[in-house]
Every structure is written in structure tokens, then in C-alpha cells.
Amino acid sequence: MMKKLTHTLAGLCLGLVLLPQASISQVTTGANTLTNNHQSAEEKARNYFTDTEVVDQNGKKMRFYSDVLKDRVVLISFIFTNCEFACPMQAQKLKQARALMVPAVRDEVWFVTLSVDPERDTPEAMKKFAERQGVDESRWIFLTGDKKNLEFLVKRLGQYTPDIESHTTLMLAGNTRTRHWTRVLPMVPPDGIAQQMRSLVEETPG
């Protein structure tokens, strides 16, 4: 969005000398409105998702919206590292989906995996889970941290359950630049996930 806005403003500046004063005023007002609308939408997104502190699999502290979600196309999943079947199976399915994406799409998608059991899921445990699954950790962030922070975020994303054993394998996919979010149902196969993510990437203004 900001790239498009920059190009738009650059083009407008080249034509200002050809416009009467009233038209210049209209262009300036329109550009300011576009900028303000973008800032307003970003502020709403930050207020909703929040900059709650999380910690990635490498021990790096991050702000959830500003450092993890902002200006990205993301696929959010939920795991606990002691899970024996569903979570590893989900990770393998996401690996397959990633492999099916063409490079132009794959390079734009960030995988974000949140712990639903942060008391046991230390950064080291999340790192080991990723390694056991053979995950390529470039553009794949495993998040844990303080229990109350993770519970807050999982609740905010609509996936909280007090019994971690019964947590859902439903995932969330979104383009934070276009503010389009959708659910990825557990029965969707890898090629279906890849297609959903391609659609979200293609929404991004060039």
C-alpha cells in the first residue's frame, strides 16, 4: 500500500505545475486523505492484534503485530510440542503446502505457529519441534512466551480452549495489507492451502 502511495504521489508531483491552484489543493487533500486512511487502518489492526510480547524459537522477543504480522501475508497455526499426532501432522501438511507454492508466492508467505502450552513450550522446545519436523525456518516463526500473553493472543484469534489436548487444528490466513482474513479448515489438503495463500498474495497492490 505504501509503495503504491509513494508511486502515486511521485506521479502527482510531476503534474502539479500543469494544474491550477484549486486543483493542486484538491490533489493535496486527496493524498492526505489516502495517507490518513492507511494510518487509521493500521492503527485499528495494531489495536486489535496488539503488540503483546512473544518470543520466537530462537529466543528473540517480538511484538505480535508490529514484528510478526504487519505488512505480511501470514498463515497462523496453533500447536503444543508434546502433541503426538495432530500437531506433527499439521506441520507436515504445511510443509507440503509450502512446497507446492510457486516461488513468487512462497517468498511472500510467512508461517506463524503459536503455542497453546507456553509453560512447557520454551523457545528451545519450539526449536526442537521445528527441527524434528524438518521445517525450513526461513519465514516460519514459532512463538511462545509468557502464559498470559499467549493465552490472550490465542483468545483474540478465537482459538482458545482450557484443555490443550482438545485444541483445534483450524488455521487462520490473512493479508494484513489488504486486511482480508479467512479460516483454513482442518480438512483442506495441502494444494488447497497453497491456493488460498496464493489468492491472498495476489491481492497485495503492486
Question: What's a concise summary of this model?
Answer:
The protein has 206 residues and is of the alpha/beta class. The protein has helices at residues 2-15, 21-49, 64-69, 86-100, 103-106, 123-132, 147-156, 190-203, and strands at 53-56, 61-63, 73-79, 109-115, 140-144, 171-175, 180-184.
Attribute tags:
single chain; 206 residues; alpha/beta; seven-stranded mixed sheet; 8 helices; disordered N terminus
Distance between the termini: 8 Å
Give the total of beta strands. Answer: 7
Order of helices and strands: HHEEHEHHEHEHEEH
- Kindly report the spatial arrangement of strands forming the biggest sheet: 2-1-5-4-3-6-7
Low-pLDDT segments, ≥5 res: 1-29
Question: What's the shape?
Answer: globular
Overall pLDDT confidence: 86
Q: How much strand content do the residues show? A: 15-25%
Work out the helix count. 8
Using only C-alpha atoms, the radius of gyration works out to 20 Å
What kind of sheet is the major sheet? 7 strands, mixed
- The secondary structure category is alpha/beta
Q: Classify the helix fraction into a percent range.
A: 40-55%
